[in-house]
Amino acid sequence: MLDKTMSVLTALESGPASLAQLVRLTGLSRPTAHRLAVALERHRMVARDSQGRFILGPRITELSIATGEDRLLAVATPILAQLRDHTGESAQLYRRQGDVRVCVAAAERMSGLRDTVPVGSELPMTAGSAAQVLLAWEDSERIRRTLRGAHFTAATLAQVRRRRWAESVGEREPGVASVSAPVFAPSGRIIAAVSVSGPLERLTRSPGRLHAPAVLAAANKISEALRHT
């Protein structure tokens, strides 16, 4: 039974899944998949998104942080500080959770006008450069659904995949610009997005021209460190 339970959690690593998708991904019978998913939901290991699909629950992150085994945060935190110091802008790390992206780490600009995103903030997957990055490598059906209400297009995501970074100007919040790049797990799956964000008056209407190399280098550094830890 433990193996079957783990197969449900493993299936949800790639994103939200309906019951039918869980059955297909795990090979379990429909009653078994449903029983295990609901049991995991009671223990907050699994939750539901706004469409009723199963997603990984908050208890997994809580346990990870409590035991100090979150390699991503351990690796990324000093690199975010370096990115902030190099660019002079606030730096963030986002993970996707269902239909939102969550800020899981941040290094704030010390003074002056800045874009502050507190750790734990939930932001939409329909606006902002980090949302573009987290969506760009998803499966085509999930991309199609999210694009219905997005401030960017399929062509934008194709460009993100090609150059491996994204930029946004006033998408999430008027007067704020940002640049983001993907963090990949050793398996090659995207697991997070590194961003810098700040006022449009400093980042200009082409923020990627200023900060894409630094953001991409930071994301690559985190990905590389994860492969060696």
TrEMBL record:
Domain IclR-ED per the UniProt entry, residue ranges: 59-228
Superkingdom in the source lineage: Bacteria
Domain HTH iclR-type residues, every copy: 1-58
Molecular functions (GO terms): DNA binding; DNA-binding transcription factor activity
Entry keywords, A to Z: DNA-binding, Transcription, Transcription regulation
Keyword check for Mitochondrion: no
InterPro entries to which the protein is assigned, alphabetical: GAF-like_dom_sf (IPR029016), HTH_MetabolicPath_Reg (IPR050707), Tscrpt_reg_IclR_C (IPR014757), Tscrpt_reg_IclR_N (IPR005471), WH-like_DNA-bd_sf (IPR036388), WH_DNA-bd_sf (IPR036390)
GO biological process, one term: negative regulation of DNA-templated transcription
Protein name: Regulatory protein IclR
Species assigned in the record: Thermobifida fusca TM51
